[in-house]
Amino acid sequence: MLRAPTAGRRSQRALRGATQQIWRRRRPRGGRAWFGTDSSAFTMFGDLFEEDFSFISNNHCGKGKKSKPRESEPPAPRDFTNLSGIKNQGGTCYLNSLLQTLLFTPEFREALFSLGPEELGTLDDSRKPDAKVRIIPLQLQRLFAQLLLLDQQAASTTDLTESFGWSSHEEMRQHDVQELNRILFSALETSLVGTSGHDLINRLYHGIVVNQIVCKECKNVSERQEDFLDLTVAVKGVAGLEEALWNMYVEEEYFENDNLYRCGACDKLVEASKSAKLRKLPPFLTISLLRFNFDFEKCERYKETSCYTFPIQINLRPFCEQTEMDDSEYMYELFSVIIHKGGCYGGHYHVYIRDVDELGNWQLQEEEDGLIEERALGDTENAKETENPLAVLKRILSEEEVKQIPVDQLGQKLLEKKGVSWNKKYRKQYGALRKYLQNHPQIFQLTPDGSKVGLKEAHKFRLDSHGQNLQSPSQKNDVQWNCEKNPPRPRAASAGCHWFDLNDSKVQPIKEKDIEKQFQGKESAYMLFYRKAQLKRPPEARGNPRYQIPEHLLNEMNAANTELQKKRAECDSANNGIDLHLHLSSCYRFHNGALHPSLSWKESVVDLTIDRRKTLGELRQAVFQMLESWEGDMVLSMAKPLPAGLHLYQVLDGDELTLDGTGLADGADIFVWNGKEVGGTKVLAGPEHEPVVLNVLRLAEHNEGGKGQHFSETQLVVSCSTSLGQLHSALAPAGGIILKNGSGADREAKNWEVFHEEDMKETVQSVGLRDGCSVLILDSHDQSFVNVASGNLTAFTYDISWLQVKNFCGEEEEEKHVKITATIDTMMSDIKMKAIRELQLEEELATESCLRPVSGNGKLLSPVPEDYTVKEAELKMGSLLGLCRGKAPTSTQLFLYFMVGSDQSCSPEMEIVVEETASVRECLNLMLEKSGLSGDNWHLRRLDWCYEAGEALSQENATLKELNVCRGDTLVITEGKLPGKGFLKIPIWWLKPSSCKKHGEKAEDQVNGITWKMEALQVSAAAAPPEPAHPGLDLCYAGRIEVAGEASLEDLKMQALTLPCCQEQVVPLPSFLRAWTVDSKRPGKLLRDNKRKLSDYRLGARVEICIEPLQEEENLGPHELLLRVQMGIPGERDYFDSRDLVWDISKECTTWALRQRVASHYCLPVDKIEIAKYFPERFEWLPISSWTQQISKRKKRKKHESLQVAPYHLKDGDIIGVKNLLLDDTKDFSTIRDDIGKEKQRQLALEKRKSRQERVQDPFFPEEKLPTKPRKPEVALSINVGVFR
């Protein structure tokens, strides 16, 4: 068995392959994570319907375009369907499906659009205090306009959900679409009170059901009316919708025998019949299917997946009270089906919708292919007919009932009839469709605006009842229509009969028969929407998404589309630019099988930006222009940084080829040389000469204590074409053997394979040796470790199949421990009894002790229930357990840690066992009693991941189970009462300047070394802080304030000045104070705008604020960045005191703009300064660009990248160091203070590594188990609406 040596330098890491030593001389590669689709949930089933996310982490890409923030990329345009989807905010698929249904209900959409700003107000007035703006209808109007007109693949519902009053947590929660339908309608009714649309919902969706009881004796009828906006029908035990409606509204229930009815007229118990009927039918009928039920025998939820049919058209006459009207009054047509995919514990919503107004382009790929194939097999006459677009268009127009149709609809008709679009078939020969119609004015009649077209009377076909043309052959324009093969489609069948599947952002056409697939299964219909067949759409609405949209929304969408086109053009230009890294041969030397820079890596590389659509010849010319001093031949070769160094591959030949065609990607490396040698040394290029770095291991002569094996490790660079025979001759002595690690870098190294004599002709590449692979060299006397028959090194493997138990019940200083043999199915009670016997303890201890896992830092974790197995307790073999006094908690009890205050050095951690049904107040009282405290001025908080007091348990009457307090959680007893609802209790810090400049001191004086000192601001320490001040910063704790969430930032500043230690400061106005959030014990986010409400900042319950006094008023705008600049002291590794610099970034936030602003501040030339950003947490300075990289203006300028993204992430409060090159030519920005900080960090890292190695050395030490994710509590769905009565 191998064990890691105590020395730690050459450890078991060597046997695991030692493949992690990769030199990364390039910038780090990016990684992306893909996220799965969402799953829906239902409030009626609580937290069981959580979002079903799937994560794929860190799929590292190779070279490629640097990932940009998604906000900077314009949204994708609509696809061929010309319909827009809706983005999923994380868990809003139920909302998206309902919104699409309402959008494709034209009558609802147009009624909403008919409400103007004079009734609803405008979104611009929403922040005015006295304005009554009906935000929800306005945002719904705007979203519908975007879905209809904005050229983007998917619209966002963020503004709409914000108008609902939903937070980001609400958008991630899942709810029932049936519940949302009712709540949204209620919110709209409330929002539209007092407008002409006050009855919009009732007018379209309101119906009446009447329940009647008829006395069998006196025939008295007792009835009761019920209003409905949707009908809920049973699924269980019913074959389909019509049977369910029959059971509800046709069959009668009888009161007889022992179950009699008391008649009001007879005043006695009589026989009677009970029934229900539909008294009033709405224009739109919504039906909810009860798919989810509860099995009371099994006590579990389940989803009804049996077959449940519903018709496309349904006659409701049998279910209505009044049946004397015409059949058309009872006919309804299906136009939307909301589908739920999944089970009762998770799933996803999407919707099938019939395009009533023919707004989308419907085309199935298989139908198009079939029609094209059928036409290809047709006779010559039909082929000639297809080639004549004039006859085809005349035929289509003559079949129309109306005189004129939109031109876009004509193109759609052509697609339906011929199976191929105009652009695909005729555009190349005849031009655009509209232009073709204009070129034949003698046949086609267009409206003045060119939007509609019809046939002139002289050219109309006359058809008989079978669709045959009754004109003479001379009038048919020589076209013979084969009506048997291609009969003309009746108009009624094609109008608005196309269906689409709208699945969040994705929209695709489907066939009507695809609806039948949703009758049953885990993916099945959940809500049905019918419309009266009598409802006819006006001809001008067909194919016209702009129909009835208000003018102000049309203008807004036109402007948005113009901006989108502009952004897409800019993005296209940016996406075609690639960055190439040119490596100059004059800066390299060939050494140890690869190219290495003779200077620094940065100085050996020149960056070039070029359009990927340019040719290699243009690239070569650009390189020549950059390198004006180049002499002789120039060869460009593809290069790649490898662990061994830079290696060359193919030569870039063919000046006429484009860069994209040669495979040059963004970030590609190109080596510029003469094609023969580098520095007088011949260079072998190509993949067959690729260098490989191998780790060569040998058994060390000294083996301390005999515990495992020690190894010496060296590295060797060889060509991948080197044979194993050559490798053996160079490494292994006579009689020695070579073994390779066959397990890979990330697996336990226990399978070492021997290279046999017949393998010696193989190459390094063919046997699978790659960079970082390990080879083990054994001399003849070391070969006893090898099983030569199997060719494996097996003497070093081991398997742990036991647990270690340490005795914590005794009073001895050194606790004894034993190993207990166990499997994953061994009961924890058996392990405890075995441990008691082997530790020779008293048997009575079995009832008064428990087993507790020991964490990596020696902490005793919560006890393990004794009826658990090792697997159920989630223990790994080899884990360390502690045998401690005390009973293990039962399944209904919680074992909790708690402390007074979050400072562990002042308050020790204590333990307590409480019932999970205990309230927060009861739990707090028990903890106060155990800790010896009293009074009611305390409350409980959770311990966050930073081991600080976090979220408060504000619901003191709620149980611990309801608040998801889990076994092993740590709670903090915090002094002070909880703030009232809507109030924030905020700790305030005072930011003391360590040394302040005199007001009005000029920056030029600082450059010349003239500085002035003044007394540091003294803050009284009258009130001792309840927690330590932040180390390393001039922050002084001032106290806590309680302020309303609706208060302004100015109110917070005024209240902070009332704190005892702040009252000594002379502050004329709140604008003389600057407010920051405290983040990682430093000033974090700058809070702008004194009039802004605190709730708008979304500060959170645990925010801390620091106040910084100013010597003059300040009112920063949203595009002004506050930086702290400090000039370096010439000749010293130190800086003058920092000064505030306000930088306007509204135009650009680039390196060049910042250099100009800093140079202007110090009155220095731009080319005579160097700047760098300081990262205080790492004690590092990152230079911001380099002036020497600004090359000739004849070159195409490099793309300007914002400093607010990687790697600088420039933000308010950042420190910018400045070097005056006129006085100081050193480019080292670091200070002595940085050296000390780095050394402390290095010592801390060494101590952690040493501690980790000591734990790794003990194979019995357990790993701390991550806590399981608690299930989210049930939260009811709600929409916040203002009062408009």
Q: In a few lines, what is going on in this structure?
A:
With 1285 residues, this protein is α+β, with helices and mostly antiparallel strands. Belongs to the peptidase C19 family.
General description of the model:
It is a single chain. By secondary structure, the protein is α+β, with helices and mostly antiparallel strands. The chain contains 27 helices and 58 strands. The strands form 16 sheets. Strands 7, 12, 15, 16, 17, 21, 22 and 23 form an eight-stranded mixed β-sheet that branches. It has a five-stranded mixed β-sheet with strand order 27-24-30-28-29. It has a five-stranded mixed β-sheet with strand order 34-33-37-35-36, with no helix packed on it. Helix 4 packs across helix 18. The longest helix has 26 residues. The N terminus is likely disordered. This is Ubiquitin carboxyl-terminal hydrolase 40. InterPro entries: Papain-like_cys_pep_sf, Peptidase_C19, Peptidase_C19_UCH, UBL_USP40, USP, USP_CS. It comes from Cyanistes caeruleus. GO terms for molecular function: cysteine-type deubiquitinase activity.
